[in-house]
Amino acid sequence: MAHKAGLFDLRLVIAVLFGLYGVILAVVGLGFTDETDLAKSDGLNINLWSGVGMVALAAVFAAWTFLRPIVVPDADAGADAKG
User: Fold this and answer.
1) Which residues contact 61 (CB under 8 A, 6 or more apart)?
2) CA distances (Å), 3 to each of 15, 68, 71, 73, 74, in order?
3) What distance in Å separates the CA atoms of residue 47 and residue 42, rounded to the nearest whole number?
4) Is 52:26 a contact under the CB 8 Å cutoff?
5) Cα–Cα dist 34/32, whole Å
6) What are phi and psi of 24, to 5 degrees?
7) Cβ-contact 26, 49 below 8 angstroms
8) Class of residue 55 by CB neighbours under 10 A (exposed 0-12, middle 13-18, buried 19+)
9) Residue 61 burial by CB count (10 A; 0-12/13-18/19+): exposed, middle or buried?
């Protein structure tokens, strides 16, 4: 019988990392950006928009993981098929 990869799916690990870094960047962009930082980037709050983009990408990876899970065959099934 086959089972899903679950927490060992690399897409979920990538989603968690992008989500974590995205939230950190968004918080820095919202709370710790001053006028000198905005002047360096031509008035664009780069930390905020990068964080929002990373959180959105994390949501895409998480949705992909749950909508199209990877099915891992059991070790017994491979031996039976060869046999």
Assistant:
1) 11, 12, 14, 15, 18
2) 21, 13, 6, 6, 7
3) 13
4) yes
5) 6
6) -60, -45
7) no
8) middle
9) buried
Give φ, ψ of 75 to 5 degrees. -65, -30
Query: Is residue 29 a contact partner of residue 46, using CB atoms and an 8 Å limit?
Result: yes
Q: What is the mean pLDDT of each successive set of 10 residues along the chain, which is 83 residues long?
A: 78 96 97 95 96 98 92 74 59
| pLDDT on residue 3 | 79
- DSSP characters for 12-24? HHHHHHHHHHHHH
C-alpha to C-alpha distance for 55 and 23, rounded to whole angstroms: 7
What's the one-letter identity of residue 5? A
Q: Report the predicted TM-score, pTM, of the whole model to 2 decimal places.
A: 0.81
